[in-house]
Design goal:
The protein is α/β, with parallel strands linked by helices. Helix content is 47%, strand content 13%. The termini are far apart. The structure holds nicotinamide-adenine-dinucleotide. It comes from Paraclostridium tenue.
């Protein structure tokens, strides 16, 4: 049985929930981070606990470093370590660049990008001395190719790729792998404000002729967390059905 511990941010729903579930099913201790969606986090906790899995929840706003530091300490206290960190929490806003307010810019950058710095920095206090760890950062295809009407989102997701590549070089000698997953269009609540006709157009532009599921991303994360990916670091894997091929 796998006794490793994974911390998944923003895990109460969507992609994070699928990752937390798949990791629990594969024997990881899982700390489910959530911020506002307490009921969804509790529902997931109860479901996974009832199936006999080793999980816990922790409420923290990942854009606040003090809360992040307490969360990582809690993870160490509960599960005696941290082996895998999945920086998944994120928000998406749609706006013309010239209409993005300073507040909206700060909110997107602090939630999507500063959070990755905070959680990773704290987790490394434990990973570096143990000389092992897997860091999986959830970026986006829009961080690879740019998305109009979401320059702040695209900027945050592109920066995550840059951070991951640079960090992979720095952490290689400590046997810590850092990789990015850059999902394509994935059917989660994040797409709620996109009209059905627009989603259908995206589907038709996708060579595999479907949008992605949260499970498509979770499968990729499980591979990157496992020993089967031990020689992979600093890479961007993009499960996107062929929508973006670079
Ligand atoms: P989602 O909105 O369902 O999930 C996002 C999660 O992050 C939610 O649980 C939310 O509560 C949490 N979160 C937001 N701000 C937080 C904060 N400050 N502290 C803690 N948790 C916070 O969306 P999703 O589609 O599951 O997105 C997950 C990740 O995948 C995001 O980083 C998103 O940018 C990325 N992504 C999604 C898609 C897509 O098409 N759905 C595509 C590419 C990348």
């Amino acid at each position: 049985m796998n006794k490793k511990t994974a911390l998944v941010t923003g895990a109460s729903r969507g992609i994070g929930k699928a990752i937390a579930t798949l990791f629990a099913e594969n024997g990881y201790n899982v700390l489910i981070n959530y911020n506002n969606s307490e009921q969804e986090a509790l529902d997931l906790y109860n479901e996974l606990k009832s199936r006999g899995f080793s999980v816990d929840t922790y409420k923290a706003d990942v854009s606040k470093k003090e809360e992040v530091n307490l969360m990582v300490n809690y993870c160490i206290g509960q599960f005696e370590g941290i082996d895998v960190l999945v920086n998944n929490a994120g928000i998406s806003k749609t706006n013309l660049f010239t209409d993005i307010s300073y507040e909206e810019w700060d909110e997107v950058i602090s939630t999507n990008l500063n959070s990755v710095f905070y959680v990773t920095k704290k987790a490394l206090q434990y990973m570096i001395p143990q000389m092992s760890g897997k860091i999986i950062n959830i970026s986006s295809i829009w961080g690879m190719v740019g998305g109009s009407y979401e320059v702040h989102y695209s900027t945050s997701k592109a920066a995550i790729i840059g951070m991951s590549k640079a960090l992979a070089k720095e952490l290689g000698p400590s046997n810590i792998q850092v990789n990015c997953i850059a999902p394509g269009v994935i059917q989660t609540d994040m797409l709620d404000n996109i009209e059905d006709y627009a989603l259908e157009a995206l589907r038709q532009e996708t060579p595999l002729m479907r949008l992605g599921t949260a499970e498509d991303i979770a499968n990729c994360a499980l591979f990157l967390a496992s020993d089967k990916s031990n020689f992979i670091t600093g890479q961007v894997i993009s499960p996107n059905g062929g929508f973006v091929i670079v």
